[in-house]
Amino acid sequence: MGYSGSGYILVSRGSRAVESRRLAHTRLQAHEEVPYDLLAWWDKLYISVQPSRRPVTLLDEARKGTTPEIEEVAKAEGVDAERLRRSVAKGRTVIPRNVAGRARPLGIGEGLRVKVNANVGSSKDRASLEDEVRKAKVAVEVGAHTVMDLSTGGDIDAIRRAIIEALDVPIGTVPIYQAGVQAARESTIVEMTPEDMLGGIEAHARDGVDFVTVHCGITRQSVERLQRQGRVTGVVSRGGSFLVAWILHNDQENPLYSQFDQLLDIAREHDITLSLGDGLRPGSLADATDRAQIQEMLILGELVERCWDAGVQVMVEGPGHIPIHEIEANVRMQKAVCKGAPFYVLGPIVTDLAPGYDHITGAIGGALAAWAGADYLCYVTPTEHIGLPGVEDVREGVVASLIAAHAADLTRGIDADRDLAMAEARKALDWDRMFDLSLDSRKAREMRAACNPEEEDACSMCGDLCALRMVEQALDRKGD
Amino acid sequence: MGYSGSGYILVSRGSRAVESRRLAHTRLQAHEEVPYDLLAWWDKLYISVQPSRRPVTLLDEARKGTTPEIEEVAKAEGVDAERLRRSVAKGRTVIPRNVAGRARPLGIGEGLRVKVNANVGSSKDRASLEDEVRKAKVAVEVGAHTVMDLSTGGDIDAIRRAIIEALDVPIGTVPIYQAGVQAARESTIVEMTPEDMLGGIEAHARDGVDFVTVHCGITRQSVERLQRQGRVTGVVSRGGSFLVAWILHNDQENPLYSQFDQLLDIAREHDITLSLGDGLRPGSLADATDRAQIQEMLILGELVERCWDAGVQVMVEGPGHIPIHEIEANVRMQKAVCKGAPFYVLGPIVTDLAPGYDHITGAIGGALAAWAGADYLCYVTPTEHIGLPGVEDVREGVVASLIAAHAADLTRGIDADRDLAMAEARKALDWDRMFDLSLDSRKAREMRAACNPEEEDACSMCGDLCALRMVEQALDRKGD
Lengths: 480, 480
Known about the structure:
The first copy, chain A, is built from 19 helices and 15 strands. Chain A is α/β, with parallel strands linked by helices. The relative contact order of chain A is 0.08.
C-alpha cells in the first residue's frame, strides 16, 4: 500500500493496509490483511472487480463501530458521532451511499437536519440529457441534498450516468420506470419479467446510484384491499401503477415482494439503500389515509425488519395528499409501524385546489410532516399536476422545500442562529448580509434591484417611514 | 315611505316604515315610526345628515335579533343564522361594515371560512392612484375577501376613496399612517396631536372604511416592558413605531389608549369595526412571543371588553414572525385573553431566511394559525422585507394565503367538496374542469399551455405512462 496520486492499483490478497481504509466492500484497519485480490481506483476507491466474499455494508460496520462516513455526517450536523452511530446501527438514520463511494456522506434521520430531494428526469416528449443534468445541478446549487433521476425518455442510461457523474450528492432512481419503459418499447409494461425488474435495479446499482425506490408493498393483498376500498383517484404512483397492472394482468405476486431476498442481495452487494415506495399513496385528499394506503405501510414495516436483518439500510416513503389534521397521525403511525425507519414524504400537499402552486401546498404539508418527525422531504414544483418542471420550477420547488425543512429544524433548535443572524442584519439594514443569509440570495437581490428604493439604507416597503429606524432614533434620543 | 327608483328623500320624523329597513343608524321595523328627520339616498341608504340620537350599531342589533347582514353571511357560509347571530352578539364573529353600507356583508370569526386580506397602498416613491386601485381590484378578483389601503404617498385621500369606490368588499385602513405622514410634512411625526390621530380615524370612517387598525395597546406600560425586554429587531410595525416614538418623545400616554372612549364614539357613530393592532409584534423569530408582545395583548384583551360594552365590533391583530411550534400557543392565548374575539394574523412567517419567498413562509404559518383558530389572514407577498409588491406579487400573495385558509377550512370539513370535485376531474383527466376548480385558473391554464403535452388527455409529467389510466385499464380488463 502507500500509493500516491491516482490510478488503478492491484491490491493483493495478504498485503497489509498502512492506514484504516474502506476498500470495496471491506473496511481495513491499519495493519490488517487484505482478504482478497482487488483492483481499486486509488483516489475514488472505485472497484472494478467483485470481491470474493460476502460484502460488508455500512450498516454492518455501524453495528460494530464508527466509520468515516458516520464521522463526517456527525461533523456536518454538529451531533455526537457515537450517538449517530447507534442511530445508524438501529436503522433510525440512513447514510445512502453506493459502495462505489462517489457521494459525499449525507445523513437522513432522527436528530439531523431535515433533508430535501429534488426529482429530475426526462419523458418521452422531453428527453434532453443536457436539460436534466442542468436541472439536477441547479437543484443542488440551490440547496437540494439529494437528486432522484426519474427519466423515462431518451437514452435513460446515459442521462442517469451523466447526472451521477456531474454531482457529488446521493443520487436515487426508480428502476421500475426504465424496466417498464423498455418492456413497453418491446411489448407492454405488464409483460415485464421478474428478471427485468431485478436486473434493472442491479444495473442502476452498478452505475453507482445510492438509493432506489422499490414498490415492494404493492402485493396481491394490498391490491385486494385497494379494490375493496374504492377510491376517487385510484393509483397515482407511476411505479405503483405498473405493479398493480402487472399483478392484475399476470395474476401473480409482485416479484419485488416475492423475490425480496434477491433484492436484498443486490442491495448488499452494492451497499445501496432501499427506499420502500408507497405505490398506493393517495392521489387526492378524498383518498388520504385510507385502508389501501395503510395496508401497504404495514407490509413495508415488515420489509423494513427484513432489510435490517440483511444489513441493508432502508427508508420508507409516504404520501402524498393529506389534509393538515391527518399529517401528524401519518408520520407517527409510520414511525411506530416501521420501527423508527427514516420517513421520506412527497409533499405532502394539503389541498387539491392549487395547480400552479403545489410547491406551496407541499411546503405547508412538508413543514408539518417534518415537525411531526418526517426526516426527508421530496420537493414538489409549481408544475406538479400540470407537466414536467423547467429549471426555474426546480429552483422554486427546492427553495419551498428548504423553507419547510428549515422551519421544522427550528422547532428542534437546529440552525436558529441563522435566523438570528438575519434578524441582526435586518436591524442593521445591512442588505448584503441579508442577501448572503437568504435561502435564495439571487432572487432576493434581483427583487431588491427591481424595487429600487430611494433611500439606500431603507427599503421601498416603508421608505422614509422605516419602523426600525424610527424607534431606534427615538430610543437613542431618549438615552441622550 | 314607499319611494321607487333612487334619489335623495327626506324621511320625516313620525312617518312610518312600510317595510323593515335599516336607515342611517336605526333599524326600522315595518310600521314603526321614524324617530327623527333624515335625508337618505334611497337605494344606497346614503345618509347625508347626522341622526339626532345615539346610533345603533350592528352589534347592538345582533344582541336583539337577526339582521339582514347576519342573514346574508349565514347564507353565504352555509351556517345557521341564529347561531351566527349569537356569535356576532358575543363578539366572536365580526361583520365589518361602515354604516354607509357599501360593502357586501362578510363574516369573520368562529365556524366561518377563514378570510384573507390583501394590503395595497402607495409610498412616497410610488404614489400612483391607478396602480393601487389596480392592485386592489386584482386582489379581489383572485379571491381576497377584504383589502386594506396602507397608502403613505401621493394624494392619500384620493387613493383611499378610489379604492372604496372601486370595490364592494370590506375596506380597512391604518389611519395613523396618514396622520403621521401629514405631521411629517409639516413638522415631525412625533408632533402629531391627539386631534390629528382621532381626527384621521374619523375622516376615514366618514369616507366609508369598514374597519381601522388602531394601535391602542402601545402604552407607556408596554413600551416600558419593551425596553426591559431588549429585542433583536425592536419595533417593526410602522404604526407601532410612530406611537412608541410619540410616547417617548412627548413623555405622555398614547392618545389612542387614553382617549379610547372618544375612539369608541367615532366607531359607534360610523359603525366601523376596530382592529386592535399589534404594534409590538415580533420582527424576527428571535423576538417571537416575548414579554413585550404578550404585554400588549393583555392590554388589547381589556380593550376588547370595552369595545363590547360600547356596542362596537372588534378584532385583534397578531404576529408576525413565529416559529412553527409557538403558533398554536399564540392563537390559543389570544383567544383566551381576548375572550374569543376574532384573531387577525399577519402571516405568521415561520423563518426569517426566505426573502423573496415570504408568501410561502407566510402560507405555512397562516395554515397553522388558522388551523389553531385564527380567523383572518393578512397576506404576505414575495416582496415582503424587500419592497412594495407589484400586481403579480399581489396575485401570488393572495393565492398563497387562500391556500393556507382553505387548507385550514378543510380541517373543519368546510369546502371539502371542492377538493373532491377536483379529484374527480383529475381522475377523468378533465382539464377544463380542473382549471375551473383551481384557486388560480389563469395560472394553471398558462402553465399547461407552456408544457404542451403530446397526448391531450394526459399530462407531460407522465405522458403515456399515466398512472391513472394504466390502473384504470388494468382494472377494466380484469372486470371484463
